[in-house]
Amino acid sequence: MERKSFDNLLGDLGAPQALHHHWADLSGCPVAVVVVEAQFADFVDQKRLGGRWPAGYVARALAELSAMHPKLPIVFAGNRKLANLWTQGLFLAHQARQASPELEWVREVAVRYDPVPRTAGVDEQIRAMVRRAMPAEFALSDLASRLPGVAISRIRRVVGAIRAEGRLHRAGSGRNARWVKVNGPPPPSRSRATGPPRPARPRGPAGEVGVWRGEAVRHRLEDPSSSGGYVATLRDILMRKGYDVVSVGPTETVLQAANLMNDRGIGGVVVLDGDNLLGIFTERDILRRVVAQGRDPATTPVAHVMSAPVLSAGPDLTLDACAALMTERRVRHLPVRDDAGLIGLITTGDLLAHQVSEQETTIEQMRSYIYDLR
After folding, report:
1. Hey, what long-range contacts does 235-239 have (CB within 8 A, 24 or more apart)?
2. Per the confidence metrics, is the pTM higher than 0.70?
3. For residue 309, is the peptide bond before it cis, meaning its omega torsion is within 30 degrees of 0?
4. Residue 174: its pLDDT value, please?
5. Structurally, what CATH architecture does the domain formed by 188-357 represent?
6. Could you give the CA distance from residue 94 to residue 36 in angstroms, rounded to a whole number?
7. Helices in 177-233 by DSSP H: which ranges?
8. Tally of CB atoms within 10 A around 332
9. Residues 6 or more apart in contact with residue 232 via CB below 8 angstroms
10. Is 132 left (phi over 0), alpha (psi -120 to 50) or beta?
11. pLDDT tens per residue across span 232-258
């Protein structure tokens, strides 16, 4: 056995040829070991080296020593006290080995191996439970109750993978999230569009810009290089937040509309004349067209200061296309209409909340995947 302090070994590296010859002789002993009274990290710490040798040179030299003398282990004990403790343990173990070739505390107990029939993996069991036993709409807690002993993180990861395949759709977020089965392939409007483009729709009644159906972004969905899978749309946000739309009539005053917005805690209302969408009235309109122009909010009708014509969108417009549209048109409120009429209102806050929810889900799935690998 050879003991080396930090300074001793560092000095020996100045004469590598002599050190190799010496360690070659040491390797010929029946039991040989080099115990260093320092950590390996000390030899690659440039501050600890004090400029005597570059850290890269020392690391390479120590690696070459281990490679050229494989029968001579190098133990980095850490300090002199630990080196003494390790050396004492080695001597005691070697003495016991001479007395008994097989030490009791390292003897392995032979266990008879009984192979068991292979069953489906846990992931496949979760998939089978979702496919066969769960109802059309279910919560994650309901699925976990039917799979006792399976980590909830693993269930989340598998459910997330099924969702990425387009076989599940999530409605809501957090503890109130519900998972809805998708029968058959996802609708073309929610994934890559196929077939010929839809014909352009005619403009709506006077005073409307028209319903943005997504034709302008269809080339992005039909790009062969785009990835498949489920693409979130405005319908997903409406399923989470609800289809309630707060509206006022064109003859109501600004003061009445402002009180309604304060009571409901919202930043805008749509202006309807029956089922006809006339415009939208927001806090920005109050600032620019009422306060800045010195109008009396108690007598000014909403129809005189609302934003019109108003842009609306279809429920199958993707969230990315919706965000690009609202940014381009510089609007914060976007009514959503289908063939039956007005069905909801989307705001920039709704898009941000959905994006945050999606990111939280992705982070949770990645965390679960990493923990499962452990």
Report:
1. 235/315, 235/316, 236/169, 236/170, 236/171, 236/319, 236/354, 237/319, 237/346, 237/350, 237/351, 237/354, 238/315, 238/336, 238/343, 238/344, 238/346, 239/171, 239/172
2. no
3. yes
4. 67
5. Roll (3.10)
6. 20
7. 218-221
8. 15
9. 190, 318, 319, 354, 358
10. alpha
11. 888 888 887 877 888 899 999 999 999
Residue among 283, 346, 350 nearest 312 (CA): 346
Output the pLDDT for position 184. 54
Do 30 and 1 touch, CB atoms closer than 8 A?
no
- What's the confidence (pLDDT) of residue 252? 93
**Nearest Cα residue to 271 out of 247, 253, 290, 307:** 247
Site of tokens 């705001």: 347
- CB distance 245 to 346 below 8 Å: no
Rounded to the nearest 10 degrees, the angle between the axes of helix 16-27 and helix 55-68 is 30
What CA–CA distance (Å, rounded) separates 273 from 147?
Answer: 53
> Dmax over Cα atoms in the chain, in whole Å?
107
> For residue 102, what pLDDT band results from cuts at 50, 70 and 90?
low
Residues contacting residue 223 through CB under 8 Å, at least 6 positions apart: none
| Every domain of the chain and the residues it spans | 2-104, 122-181, 188-357
Contact 313, 234 (CB under 8 A): yes
Structure tokens at 112: 């008879």
Q: How far is CA 78 from CA 67, 83, 84, 128, 218, in A?
A: 21, 7, 11, 53, 65
Q: State the chain's mean pLDDT as an integer.
A: 76
What 3-state class would DSSP assign to 208? strand
Question: How far is residue 231's CA from residue 212's CA, in Å, rounded to a whole number?
Answer: 17
DSSP readout, 291-334?
ITTT--TTT-BGGGTSB-SEEEE-TT-BHHHHHHHHHHHT-SEE
Looking at the domain covering 122-181, what would its CATH class be?
mainly alpha
User: 28, 29, 9: which is closest to 19 by C-alpha?
Assistant: 9
Residues in the chain: 374
Tokens of 36: 């260093």
